[in-house]
Amino acid sequence: MPLDSKRVKQFMPVALFMVALYTILFQMAERWNWWNLNANVFFLTNISSFVYGFLIVFTYPNVWLFLIANWMIDAIQAFVISPYIFQKLGLYSMKNMSNFGLFVMIAVTVPIVYVYQKWQETIFAERNEGFLSKQFSEKDGNH
After folding, report:
1. Tens digits of per-residue pLDDT, 11-21?
2. Among 56, 58, 31, which Cα is nearest to 45's?
């Protein structure tokens, strides 16, 4: 099941990392006038709510499936959804960045997110390994 509590715990750090990463990118976009956003998340400037979603739960740990699935969705986002839906609805308009630039910006984050998740898993594995070895040593009377 993709959203059981164990998987939610597993991917919560990467979800928060993605929120931070995309928040920074959207603030950069505002500073450098990459696009003009007309519908913000109410407490942030120049950030659209459609940014905060991810595919890692369904494709991880297969690196190639993760990369290809994300890049395909990113291409659809940049070359179809952005110009023919979001821009036509007036949610935003591109200024100093093209749709190809949008694709590259989003696509570059995909391997960063994957590497971050791998790093998080090594931290959790080390923490669990230390916890388990402590539990077993206490049972054996070795403190």
Report:
1. 888 888 988 88
2. 31
pLDDT-derived band at 80 (thresholds 50, 70, 90) equals very high
Average pLDDT, integer, range 54-66: 80
In sequence order, the β-bridge partners of residue 93 are 36
Task: Tell me the backbone φ, ψ of residue 131, rounded to 5 degrees.
Answer: -65, -45
Peptide bond into 83 cis (omega under 30): no
Q: Which amino acid is at 84?
A: Y
The first and second tokens of residue 97, run together, are 């960045």
* AA letter at 11: F
